[in-house]
Design brief:
Blueprint lengths: L1 H89 L4 H24 L3 H4 L2 H13 L5 E6 L10 H22 L3 E9 L2 E8 L14 H12 L3 E6 L5 E7 L7
Parallel strand pairs: 1-2
Antiparallel strand pairs: 2-3, 3-5, 4-5
Length: 259
Protein backbone atom coordinates (compact mmCIF):
# COMPACT_ATOMS: atom_id res chain seq x y z
CA UNK A 1 0.00 0.00 0.00
CA UNK A 2 2.84 2.35 0.86
CA UNK A 3 4.49 1.53 -2.45
CA UNK A 4 1.32 2.39 -4.38
CA UNK A 5 1.04 5.68 -2.50
CA UNK A 6 4.68 6.50 -3.30
CA UNK A 7 4.11 5.73 -6.97
CA UNK A 8 1.05 7.95 -7.08
CA UNK A 9 3.03 10.73 -5.39
CA UNK A 10 5.84 10.37 -7.93
CA UNK A 11 3.35 10.39 -10.81
CA UNK A 12 1.72 13.53 -9.46
CA UNK A 13 5.14 15.12 -8.93
CA UNK A 14 6.27 14.22 -12.46
CA UNK A 15 2.99 15.51 -13.83
CA UNK A 16 3.44 18.82 -12.00
CA UNK A 17 7.06 19.14 -13.14
CA UNK A 18 6.08 18.26 -16.70
CA UNK A 19 3.26 20.78 -16.64
CA UNK A 20 5.63 23.43 -15.31
CA UNK A 21 8.20 22.65 -18.01
CA UNK A 22 5.57 22.79 -20.74
CA UNK A 23 4.17 26.05 -19.37
CA UNK A 24 7.67 27.52 -19.05
CA UNK A 25 8.52 26.43 -22.58
CA UNK A 26 5.27 27.91 -23.88
CA UNK A 27 5.95 31.22 -22.12
CA UNK A 28 9.57 31.23 -23.38
CA UNK A 29 8.62 30.62 -27.02
CA UNK A 30 5.68 33.05 -26.79
CA UNK A 31 7.96 35.81 -25.47
CA UNK A 32 10.55 34.96 -28.12
CA UNK A 33 7.84 35.14 -30.78
CA UNK A 34 6.66 38.50 -29.43
CA UNK A 35 10.24 39.82 -29.47
CA UNK A 36 10.68 38.67 -33.07
CA UNK A 37 7.41 40.32 -34.05
CA UNK A 38 8.50 43.50 -32.27
CA UNK A 39 11.89 43.45 -34.02
CA UNK A 40 10.25 42.89 -37.38
CA UNK A 41 7.82 45.74 -36.72
CA UNK A 42 10.66 48.06 -35.72
CA UNK A 43 12.64 47.01 -38.80
CA UNK A 44 9.64 47.70 -41.04
CA UNK A 45 9.06 51.09 -39.38
CA UNK A 46 12.75 51.96 -39.75
CA UNK A 47 12.75 50.88 -43.40
CA UNK A 48 9.58 52.89 -44.04
CA UNK A 49 11.10 55.95 -42.35
CA UNK A 50 14.34 55.61 -44.32
CA UNK A 51 12.37 55.18 -47.54
CA UNK A 52 10.26 58.22 -46.67
CA UNK A 53 13.38 60.30 -45.99
CA UNK A 54 15.03 59.09 -49.21
CA UNK A 55 11.88 59.94 -51.15
CA UNK A 56 11.71 63.38 -49.54
CA UNK A 57 15.41 64.00 -50.24
CA UNK A 58 14.91 62.99 -53.86
CA UNK A 59 11.89 65.29 -54.11
CA UNK A 60 13.80 68.24 -52.66
CA UNK A 61 16.74 67.54 -54.97
CA UNK A 62 14.38 67.41 -57.94
CA UNK A 63 12.85 70.71 -56.85
CA UNK A 64 16.29 72.32 -56.68
CA UNK A 65 17.16 71.11 -60.18
CA UNK A 66 13.86 72.42 -61.53
CA UNK A 67 14.30 75.74 -59.74
CA UNK A 68 17.80 76.05 -61.20
CA UNK A 69 16.54 75.33 -64.71
CA UNK A 70 13.64 77.81 -64.46
CA UNK A 71 15.89 80.45 -62.90
CA UNK A 72 18.44 80.11 -65.68
CA UNK A 73 15.72 80.26 -68.33
CA UNK A 74 14.30 83.42 -66.78
CA UNK A 75 17.74 85.02 -66.59
CA UNK A 76 19.05 83.90 -69.99
CA UNK A 77 15.92 84.07 -72.13
CA UNK A 78 13.37 86.45 -70.59
CA UNK A 79 15.97 88.75 -69.02
CA UNK A 80 18.00 88.93 -72.24
CA UNK A 81 14.89 89.60 -74.34
CA UNK A 82 13.81 92.44 -72.06
CA UNK A 83 17.31 93.94 -72.14
CA UNK A 84 17.29 93.80 -75.95
CA UNK A 85 13.86 95.46 -75.97
CA UNK A 86 15.19 98.20 -73.70
CA UNK A 87 18.13 98.86 -76.04
CA UNK A 88 15.82 99.03 -79.05
CA UNK A 89 13.57 101.50 -77.25
CA UNK A 90 16.59 103.54 -76.13
CA UNK A 91 17.28 104.25 -79.80
CA UNK A 92 13.85 105.83 -80.01
CA UNK A 93 13.83 109.28 -78.48
CA UNK A 94 10.07 109.65 -78.70
CA UNK A 95 7.61 110.10 -75.86
CA UNK A 96 6.52 106.44 -76.03
CA UNK A 97 10.06 105.29 -75.26
CA UNK A 98 10.45 107.61 -72.27
CA UNK A 99 7.08 106.55 -70.89
CA UNK A 100 7.71 102.79 -71.06
CA UNK A 101 11.40 102.57 -70.12
CA UNK A 102 10.72 102.69 -66.32
CA UNK A 103 8.16 99.91 -66.73
CA UNK A 104 10.67 97.73 -68.58
CA UNK A 105 13.35 98.49 -65.97
CA UNK A 106 10.95 97.35 -63.26
CA UNK A 107 10.10 94.15 -65.17
CA UNK A 108 13.81 93.39 -65.66
CA UNK A 109 14.47 93.90 -61.95
CA UNK A 110 11.51 91.66 -61.04
CA UNK A 111 12.66 88.89 -63.38
CA UNK A 112 16.20 89.15 -61.96
CA UNK A 113 14.92 88.89 -58.37
CA UNK A 114 12.75 85.88 -59.19
CA UNK A 115 15.61 84.23 -61.04
CA UNK A 116 18.03 84.76 -58.15
CA UNK A 117 15.43 83.51 -55.67
CA UNK A 118 14.91 80.31 -57.66
CA UNK A 119 18.60 79.69 -58.23
CA UNK A 120 20.88 82.04 -56.26
CA UNK A 121 24.04 82.39 -58.39
CA UNK A 122 25.78 84.34 -55.65
CA UNK A 123 26.39 81.19 -53.59
CA UNK A 124 29.03 80.03 -56.05
CA UNK A 125 30.27 83.45 -57.12
CA UNK A 126 30.32 85.54 -53.93
CA UNK A 127 29.64 83.21 -51.01
CA UNK A 128 26.83 82.61 -48.56
CA UNK A 129 26.92 85.90 -46.62
CA UNK A 130 26.72 88.09 -49.73
CA UNK A 131 23.86 86.02 -51.16
CA UNK A 132 21.96 86.08 -47.87
CA UNK A 133 22.42 89.83 -47.52
CA UNK A 134 21.07 90.28 -51.05
CA UNK A 135 17.99 88.26 -50.10
CA UNK A 136 17.45 90.27 -46.91
CA UNK A 137 17.80 93.54 -48.82
CA UNK A 138 14.85 92.60 -51.03
CA UNK A 139 12.67 92.08 -47.94
CA UNK A 140 13.94 95.25 -46.28
CA UNK A 141 13.19 97.25 -49.44
CA UNK A 142 9.47 96.66 -48.96
CA UNK A 143 9.52 98.83 -45.84
CA UNK A 144 6.89 96.64 -44.19
CA UNK A 145 9.30 94.84 -41.89
CA UNK A 146 12.79 95.49 -40.55
CA UNK A 147 15.41 92.74 -40.71
CA UNK A 148 18.37 92.82 -38.33
CA UNK A 149 21.33 90.68 -39.43
CA UNK A 150 24.50 90.05 -37.44
CA UNK A 151 27.39 87.76 -38.35
CA UNK A 152 29.65 87.02 -35.39
CA UNK A 153 31.09 83.93 -37.06
CA UNK A 154 33.12 85.99 -39.55
CA UNK A 155 34.22 83.98 -42.62
CA UNK A 156 33.00 80.69 -41.17
CA UNK A 157 29.63 81.02 -42.90
CA UNK A 158 31.32 81.38 -46.29
CA UNK A 159 33.19 78.12 -45.66
CA UNK A 160 29.97 76.07 -45.72
CA UNK A 161 29.87 73.43 -48.41
CA UNK A 162 27.47 73.94 -51.30
CA UNK A 163 24.84 71.45 -50.09
CA UNK A 164 24.70 72.97 -46.61
CA UNK A 165 24.75 76.56 -47.85
CA UNK A 166 21.88 75.95 -50.28
CA UNK A 167 19.79 74.04 -47.70
CA UNK A 168 20.29 76.79 -45.10
CA UNK A 169 19.45 79.46 -47.67
CA UNK A 170 16.17 77.66 -48.45
CA UNK A 171 15.41 77.32 -44.74
CA UNK A 172 15.88 81.07 -44.26
CA UNK A 173 13.66 81.77 -47.28
CA UNK A 174 10.94 79.58 -45.74
CA UNK A 175 11.30 81.22 -42.33
CA UNK A 176 11.06 84.70 -43.86
CA UNK A 177 7.99 83.70 -45.88
CA UNK A 178 6.30 82.25 -42.78
CA UNK A 179 6.96 85.41 -40.78
CA UNK A 180 5.72 87.71 -43.56
CA UNK A 181 2.55 85.66 -44.16
CA UNK A 182 1.53 84.66 -40.66
CA UNK A 183 3.39 86.38 -37.84
CA UNK A 184 2.39 90.02 -38.19
CA UNK A 185 5.90 90.89 -36.99
CA UNK A 186 7.65 94.23 -37.23
CA UNK A 187 11.19 92.94 -36.73
CA UNK A 188 13.18 89.85 -37.72
CA UNK A 189 16.52 88.97 -36.12
CA UNK A 190 19.13 86.73 -37.79
CA UNK A 191 22.40 85.87 -36.05
CA UNK A 192 25.39 83.66 -36.78
CA UNK A 193 27.93 82.79 -34.10
CA UNK A 194 30.13 79.89 -33.00
CA UNK A 195 29.49 77.65 -30.02
CA UNK A 196 31.75 74.73 -29.05
CA UNK A 197 33.49 74.98 -32.45
CA UNK A 198 30.15 74.61 -34.26
CA UNK A 199 28.34 77.19 -36.33
CA UNK A 200 25.04 78.33 -34.82
CA UNK A 201 22.28 80.19 -36.63
CA UNK A 202 19.35 81.77 -34.81
CA UNK A 203 16.23 83.30 -36.29
CA UNK A 204 13.56 85.15 -34.38
CA UNK A 205 10.70 87.56 -34.87
CA UNK A 206 8.48 89.68 -32.63
CA UNK A 207 5.24 88.43 -34.15
CA UNK A 208 2.23 86.75 -32.61
CA UNK A 209 3.90 83.33 -32.37
CA UNK A 210 1.94 80.11 -31.94
CA UNK A 211 1.26 77.45 -29.30
CA UNK A 212 4.28 75.13 -29.09
CA UNK A 213 2.00 72.17 -29.75
CA UNK A 214 1.34 73.62 -33.20
CA UNK A 215 4.97 73.70 -34.34
CA UNK A 216 4.66 70.11 -35.57
CA UNK A 217 1.38 70.80 -37.34
CA UNK A 218 2.01 74.14 -38.98
CA UNK A 219 1.91 72.95 -42.58
CA UNK A 220 4.38 72.21 -45.31
CA UNK A 221 6.56 75.20 -44.43
CA UNK A 222 7.86 73.72 -41.17
CA UNK A 223 7.95 70.24 -42.70
CA UNK A 224 10.22 71.49 -45.50
CA UNK A 225 12.43 73.24 -42.96
CA UNK A 226 12.76 70.10 -40.86
CA UNK A 227 13.43 67.95 -43.94
CA UNK A 228 16.16 70.25 -45.24
CA UNK A 229 17.86 70.40 -41.84
CA UNK A 230 17.79 66.61 -41.62
CA UNK A 231 19.45 66.43 -45.03
CA UNK A 232 22.49 68.30 -43.69
CA UNK A 233 22.44 66.61 -40.24
CA UNK A 234 21.66 69.88 -38.49
CA UNK A 235 19.91 69.88 -35.13
CA UNK A 236 17.41 72.55 -34.13
CA UNK A 237 15.15 73.69 -31.34
CA UNK A 238 12.11 75.96 -31.47
CA UNK A 239 10.78 78.33 -28.85
CA UNK A 240 7.45 80.05 -29.35
CA UNK A 241 4.12 80.76 -27.75
CA UNK A 242 1.03 82.85 -28.30
CA UNK A 243 2.03 86.53 -28.46
CA UNK A 244 5.65 85.53 -27.69
CA UNK A 245 7.09 85.61 -31.20
CA UNK A 246 8.96 82.77 -32.87
CA UNK A 247 12.55 81.64 -32.31
CA UNK A 248 14.57 78.80 -33.83
CA UNK A 249 18.16 77.80 -33.08
CA UNK A 250 20.02 75.69 -35.65
CA UNK A 251 23.29 73.93 -34.87
CA UNK A 252 25.48 73.02 -37.85
CA UNK A 253 28.00 70.23 -37.28
CA UNK A 254 31.56 70.10 -38.57
CA UNK A 255 30.39 68.00 -41.55
CA UNK A 256 28.88 71.21 -42.88
CA UNK A 257 32.36 72.17 -44.04
CA UNK A 258 33.24 68.95 -45.86
CA UNK A 259 33.23 69.24 -49.60
Amino acid sequence: MQKVTDNIFLLVLFAMVGTFIVAAAFIFFFLKYQRNISRQKEALQKAALEHSEQLLNATLQSQEEERKRIGQDLHDDVGASLSNLKMIMAQNTGITSDKHKPLIDNIIATVRNISHSLSPPGLDLFGFEFTLQELLDTFNASGNIRIHFENRADKKIDALNKKTALALYRVIQELLANTIKHAGAKNIFLNFFTENNCLVFTYGDDGKGMPESMTKKSGMGMQNIEARLKMINASFSIRTGENKGFFIKILLLETAYNS
